[in-house]
Design goal:
The protein is of the alpha/beta class. Helices cover about 45% and strands about 10% of the residues. The protein has one domain (about 15-320): Deoxyhypusine Synthase, CATH 3.40.910.10. The protein contains 13 helices and nine strands. The strands form two sheets. A six-stranded parallel beta sheet has the order 6-2-1-7-8-9, sandwiched between helices. Strands 3-5-4 form a three-stranded antiparallel beta sheet. The protein starts with a helix and ends in a 5-residue tail after the last helix. InterPro entries: Deoxyhypusine_synthase (IPR002773), Deoxyhypusine_synthase_sf (IPR036982), DHS-like_NAD/FAD-binding_dom (IPR029035).
């Protein structure tokens, strides 16, 4: 037995620790039974460098599709191109408003203890604006991640990477040809830039990037293909919000709105979040609430881990990667 698996099985006996271990074991059971895993990811996980473990999960066939916030999509690439220029502030809790102004005026955008330099956007902006313009002009929309894939295909672009390619989960997804869905893409730096370019008259229209409904239709086809092949699909959720609710709703949509009543429910569900159960909060909704929405069956394995995803997710990923069957 390898080190992380041995440690978790020895020490993670109760409370959130036990739930973490059970969720990891459930992931392995799903894969061992011929299933696949869908990952929904909110929060600033790319800035937290989740790619170190997630990229390995993707390349080893442990993750098969992803829904994420647009910030997670782009920040993985920003980190790949400029990670050595990020500024870490261990004392971030002590910053005054004046300190924040100084960071702002020096071109540093803070995410908790990590400052992303505004210059990182320039690494890809010229390339991607040209790609958007051509797509909008031709009326040939693409998914947001497909434009980033095109950037990664530019000859010699790898010479500009500041971090090892092995640490980029977006690059891993490209290599493994797995889809990345980004509902609410406009809520991102690149989404803001696209909108501004349209307003400035540099991009002719908004038709260069596929909209959320088009992404949902593609996800429905992805899920239905696996349902038709009797491949169970699990759902692992980091945080809450649109990346999770958008994607998990594909099952009730197929059942209730497409009238495909034989569509199987998600075969596994786990969520890492720090939101406690509360009134009306999606992030704080207990997994069994999803049964009423035709998302999960009464016997679906369900796990709710109330903890910090930047700590727990790498542990679970490493446990799954150290599965003896891998």
């Amino acid at each position: 037995m390898t080190a992380i698996r041995a440690f978790m099985e020895e020490h993670f006996k109760h409370f959130n620790a036990r739930e973490t271990l059970d969720a990891a074991k459930g992931w392995c059971d799903l894969l061992d039974g011929g299933g696949q895993m869908f990952l929904a990811m909110a929060g600033a996980m790319s800035t937290a460098e989740i790619g170190i473990s997630l990229a390995r999960m993707i390349r080893q066939g442990k993750v098969h599709a992803i829904s994420c916030t647009a910030a997670n999509l782009e920040e993985d690439i920003f980190n790949l191109f400029a990670g050595n220029e990020y500024k870490i502030l261990p004392e971030y809790r002590d910053l005054t408003p004046q300190d924040e102004v100084a960071l702002r005026d020096s071109g540093l955008n803070r995410v908790t203890d990590t400052c992303i330099p505004e210059t990182v956007m320039k690494e890809i902006e010229d390339h991607i604006v040209q790609m958007w313009t051509e797509a909008a002009s031709r009326g040939e929309a693409k998914f947001p991640h497909q434009f980033l894939n095109d950037v990664l295909d530019i000859p010699g672009i790898e010479d500009r990477f500041q971090l090892p390619r092995e640490r980029s989960w977006v690059l891993a997804a490209k290599e493994m040809s797995i889809p990345i869905y980004t509902p609410g893409w406009e809520d991102s730096t690149l989404g803001n830039i696209y909108t501004a370019e349209v307003m400035l008259g540099n991009i002719p229209n908004h038709n260069g990037v596929k909209r959320g409904t088009q992404q949902l239709e593609h996800l429905a086809g992805w899920y239905k293909k696996r349902a038709d092949a009797e491949i169970p699909v699990g759902f692992f959720q980091i945080g809450g919000g649109i990346s999770g609710d958008f994607s998990i709703c594909v099952v009730p949509m197929l059942i209730q709105d497409c009238y495909l009543e034989d569509t199987p429910y998600w075969a596994y569900f786990a969520q890492i979040g720090d939101s406690t159960t509360s009134y009306g909060s999606y992030s704080g909704a207990p997994p069994n609430e999803k049964i009423t929405w035709h998302k999960l069956a009464p016997d679906t394995p369900r796990f709710m881990i109330n903890s910090d995803a930047s700590i727990v997710a790498p542990l679970i990923f490493t446990y799954v990667l150290e599965d003896s069957s891998s």
